[in-house]
Amino acid sequence: MITLSKENVVDYVKSRLDFFNLDGDIKVSAIGEGTVEEDGDGFINFVYRVSDGEHHLIVKQSTLEARSKGSFTLDLNRYKLEYDAMKICAAIVPDLIPKLYDCDEENRVFITEDVSYLRISRFQLLKGVTYPKLADQIARYMAATQFYTSEYYLDTKCFRDLSVHFMNTTMRKIMEVGMFLTSVTPEDTVGRPLDPEFITFSKRICADPAVLLARQKLRHLFMSKGECLIHCDLHTSNIFASQTEAKVIDMEYSFFGPFAYDMGYFTANFIAQYAAAAFRPFDTEGARKEFKAYCLFMIRETYVKYCEYFTQYCKEDCKPEYQNIPGLAEDFCLTALREFIGFAASAMLGRICDLIPYPDYDDIDDYVQRHNAKCFSIILNREMLVKWESYNSIDEFIQDILTIEEIYCRNIKDLKL
Q: Is 303 in contact with 394 (CB distance < 8 Å)?
């Protein structure tokens, strides 16, 4: 087996594909050498960009150890599950997935299109850039890939075979722990000491019996609801975008899970962006107001469009057993609403209380404002976790965001924080 490096990756690619001119100038870089804005904030894989100026490739190899130091041993076969997940998604929504070129089982490597002609959406959002089509694109990605890998569409044997194939026990354990079982650590996500009062406050929220109960109920759904193929790591660092295009990457966590999980994880980024935008600097208050309105639009529009697409696919292609069942679509959308709010809250709380960087907050340099953003988020997350099973509309949820923000900002103003 070959171990890829910057020195041998070009020869390796030439041995697998005939894209490159043997005498041409081929550029190689390793993910992690560039800025976070260029390469993202991933911590697991060794990935190489290879380009001759005309062809632009990503070469990704599974290794036992993660790229970041101090991480645990990983599943060597995750490359195959990721490639298989991308193949399935590309067959369903080809415009939203990078092109696939090669999968090498002997060396645990796959090669795809490099889509860095687009930009990692998270770090553009932190600059105030907005994407008017992103909610529709990601809603369609989720609704289509989930419906067409679910039992609503697939015959029973195919559905069960896929469920077994995408068990992905080792990789999903990372999410099982990180999103539902984390507690507060003594340092914040960029290695700066936290104020002791912040630690006490955060620990009390995490230890609140109502929060503990909600997170365990949500964890049980995550562990036991194998409804469809989900991405499981669908955050804005794994979405390259422009004003017109979007590409979803990094599917190594994919497994058969709950319909609502991906939407919860995706919208959690926009809830975090909203909370951070309330406290991070903007050129004008008008710019702050516009960006916050965009975040709320993304939360609402993603859910609304997801329900529209899923209902459409169901009407067109669901199995006879599910056709013309009164109330079925409405029940599906209500369940998705409640579960995505719960999953979003637990994921956010887990990330805020963990050592892994959380760029949406880490981007705020001012100590007080950074922790104000985190405290507002934690309070909002608690409300979401306490109420997730009782929400009846997306607008009710958005009103809670606005109400909690108003109360929090009024209180810190009174305290002169």
A: yes
* Tokens coding 186: 């003594």
- Per DSSP, the residues of 205-258 read HHH-HHHHHHHHHHHHHHHH---EEE-S---GGGEEE-SS-EEE---TT-EEE-
Contact indicator for 150, 166 with CB cutoff of 8 Å: no
| DSSP H or E run through 331 | helix 328-352
Strands across the sheet with 100-104, in order?
Answer: 27-30, 46-51, 56-61, 109-113, 100-104
pLDDT of residue 45: 66
CA distance linking residue 39 with residue 315, whole number of Å? 40
How far CA 269 is from CA of 314, 349, 356, in Å, comes to: 28, 12, 15
Average pLDDT over residues 13-18: 90
pTM over 0.85: yes
Sheet containing 119-120: order of strands: 119-120, 239-241, 246-248
Find tokens 């109420």 and name the residue: 387
What distance in Å separates the CA atoms of residue 154 and residue 146, rounded to the nearest whole number? 11
How many beta carbons lie within 10 A of that of residue 21, not counting itself?
Answer: 13
**Residue 150, number of CB atoms within 10 A of its CB:** 21
pLDDT in tens, 43-64: 566 899 999 888 899 999 987 6
| Each residue's pLDDT tens digit, 243-281 | 999 999 999 999 999 999 999 999 999 999 999 999 999
**Lowest mean pLDDT, pick from 30-44, 303-317, 326-340, 347-361:** 30-44
The DSSP element (H or E) to which 224 belongs, if any, is helix 209-224
The answer to whether 288 touches 130, Cβ cutoff 8 Å, is no
